[in-house]
Design brief:
The structure holds two protein chains of two kinds. Helix content of chain A is 3%, strand content 58%. By secondary structure, chain A is an all-beta fold. Chain A has a 26-stranded antiparallel barrel. A four-stranded antiparallel beta sheet of chain A has the order 1-2-6-5, with helices on one face. A four-stranded antiparallel beta sheet of chain A has the order 4-3-7-8. In chain B, a hairpin with an 8-residue loop joins strand 17 and strand 18. The longest helix of chain B is centred in the first third of the chain and has 19 residues. Classes of the chains: A mainly beta, B mainly beta. At the A-B interface, strand 9, strand 10, strand 11, strand 18 and strand 25 of A face strand 2, helix 2, strand 10, strand 11 and strand 12 of B. Strand 18 of chain A pairs antiparallel with strand 11 of chain B.
Chain lengths: 679, 256
Amino acid sequence: MKKKLLARAVLGACLSQLAVGIAAADDWVPQLLPPTKATRDPTEAIRIHLPALPASVLEHLLLELDDIDVTTLVTREGTDAVFTPPTPLPYGPHQLRLVEYAADGSIIERGVWTIEIRKSRAFREGELQINSTLTVSQRVADNHLPDTAPGKTQGSGAAHIQGVAADDNWRVQGYMDLLYNNQLALMPRQKTRVDDGQFLVKADAGIATAAVGHQTVGPDTLVMRGFNRRGVSVGLGHDTDMATVQAFSLHTQDIIGFQDGLGVGDSHNRVDGVVAVGRPIPQNPQALLLEATYLKGEGPTQTGAVGTGTVGDSFSSGGKAEGLVADSSLFEQRVRLRGEYAQSHYDFDGLNTGSGAENDHAYTALATYTPWINTTAMGMPFTWQFGAEQTRIGTFFRSPANPVDPSDHKVLRGFTQLGWGGLNLQGSYGKDQTNVDNLDLLDRTETTQSVASMMYAPTINFAPSADPTQPPAFPWYGQPNFSLTYVKLDTDVTKEGGGLAVGALHATRTLSTMAGFNYSNWMWSITHTLGRDDDFTGMADDTHSRATNLNAMFRIGARLTVGPGWQQAHVEDRTNGELSSDTNTGMLNVGYQFTDRVNGNVGYSYNRQHVQNDSMNTRTQDVTAALGWMVYPAMGTQPGLTLSLEGQYHDNDDTVTTINTINTYQVFLKGVLSWAPSL
Amino acid sequence: MKYAFRYALAVALLATGTANAAITSVTASPTTAHTALTSATSLPVGWSAATDVGGSVWSAQGVFRTATGEALGTINQPLNQTVSGAGTAVFSETIVVPVEVVNRAHQLGLSSLRYERRFKDSGLAATGAVVLRITSAPAAGFGISRVTLTFDDNKALTIVNRGAKLTARAEVAATGAGILKGVWEVAGPNPETAKPPYLILGAVHQALTGRDPTILTSPALPTGAVGTYRLRLRLSEPASGFEMPVVHYFVSEKRN
């Protein structure tokens, strides 16, 4: 209410200038003036013509845009009140409302208008953006390059294209990444010199939806998790609707490039399915969400997919899976209950060959309770949550659309989290069992995991700066933040099998600490991790490890940045006579902005890897340097040109595998043509 | 006629070799290992093949078999070494035990299977074997099952503006427990194609427990110069029996 009164006062101050000594009239009508062009664009000022009104009336006017008070943004131009959007308004219809607070306390609605922000008469929205770069580099000097080195002139480029078009109740949007390199070996698939990365085109018309390209269908579940794949989906309904249904057909392997079309042509490398989501309590959609998924598919293991490496073979395996999820947030979201059940029918050793398919099931159950929401303790925000979850994934449970979750484990875990001001404490304790199908020939392991962590970022009371034009100064210790995490894992064999006797199997301890300090122009941080890994079967080595990272970044003046870093890791093999290995990595990056268009950077990197018995002994140094001059910046439809001189020096000494010892450098003169139109 | 003569000559040479040369023993190291029922398992295996005449000692492929000799799968990776005179040829390989092979053995009611290699010189051959006991994933040998490399926008190929912040993440699935050791490396913006000099960005030391996949996040990737970059996570331990993934990113000029 105070804000509204203040806003009205401000509007009054602005609009009272419109008062030109005219007598008050009770039936005056404001007039919304038409846009200056054929359509109203997102940044255009909105003008309302008012009759001559006394200051006593103007002082009590209030302007709302989509129910938000924008009175303070109104200015006077002649006899018009002009509202200039501080940020571009979204495309589509908006409601503008002018009201008067009368002296008797009543509210008089003087005008209500619906305005539409449009790109053009044809489309409400319509935009095409291209961000493209083409480089030509000439190697002007080199040393000790292999005979197979490419030619002195090389070309590469990339383009990101995105666009949107919409009108009435339909909307189409999409993007595509394109990559070019004149050397096939530098292309992801090494088959064409121009290839595409991911692409996606989505269309909505009323309740109907369709998508073609790389997409994730539905939220993560036991039957579909981390499954972003190329394919096609069609559906009815949106996230805010009571019910939605989506049918999909996606490529089993992740693919990029101009291959396999839309990803649905190969029935031996495809997952087909349907996801239905319902919110049966419309007045409180979060009270209950139901989701059902059914899918079937087959495909090779992920060998060969870009970005993946996996063991396995090349023949096809597959099956089907279905799952049901119920998710409920109750009591003003203090309580959350989630349950999921899924079953699968999967043929591991190839379809229609070898053994038949295996049936198995999986479930998860989660309950959390948050006793206090939006509460403070001693003047600081306070939250506390605790909960428990149980997950069971059968030994032979596998879905063609879940490459992430491991099978064969049953977990019971309790956890809690407490937040108070800048302090956050978390803890969990759980047990994880294998051989959940109780197979006679298989052992069973039980892993107990305890995790405790603390994060602390104290609130700083800034001292006022001596110079009032400058922001408040940091204290000498800056804005600190700290974290401490301890993880304890103990694995025991609880049922003999596979040659393993009952008893302790493995133990892991990890302690990680971090401290970081931020200032207005520089920051530094240090992390230190201690690890201990013990094997009780004699089949693996016991190790102790420690690692330290030190990083900093300095901004000196407006032009110079300096970023040093150091990493040291030490691993001690306690089984083999305390054999130790060390890795040291140091780097220094310096950047300087000579002018708005000329910049330079130099980087130095040092790495040393050494095993105590000299089975590994390498030292690597790299120096990179670049000097760039943006001759013409890309602006609008005008292409830009940048010239640069770049150098790389690489020095590797390997005293064990001496064939790896190499010392090379290359110097390139490069021209970069960039074009970034927005149409 | 010419072919008949060559065939006769070959038979004569083979017969001579058979009479005078042989692989006298093949020893595997380790002799016993644990492989997971539910995950593919990478295992390092060493072979020592003793020959009494020397020359070329080779094995065409490795075969997974039941104890009774039924073949369950193969690894078509030949091993070859030349030994001067009588002596021992030493080989090492990292094999991958596919989950379907182990699954088939389990469905046959077996608690173990064998990985065999037959080594040959110019004479008689001999076979060695590793016994693979089937266990649950945490109790299996320490090895990498799967690595997926993506950038922080969840793409395996991405385009960023010069000077933008960019990191990558590796999702690593493993069997057994131990310390993963490796380095994040990047080559670019004008990488060589044959043997690009990779710049080491930082080391990775991570305890793996053979349970849920572990997410490793890379240090900040260089984006200071326009061009194509290649990124990889090179592991030194444990050895992986497959080629580690390499992903590409392109740094484009900033738009005004």
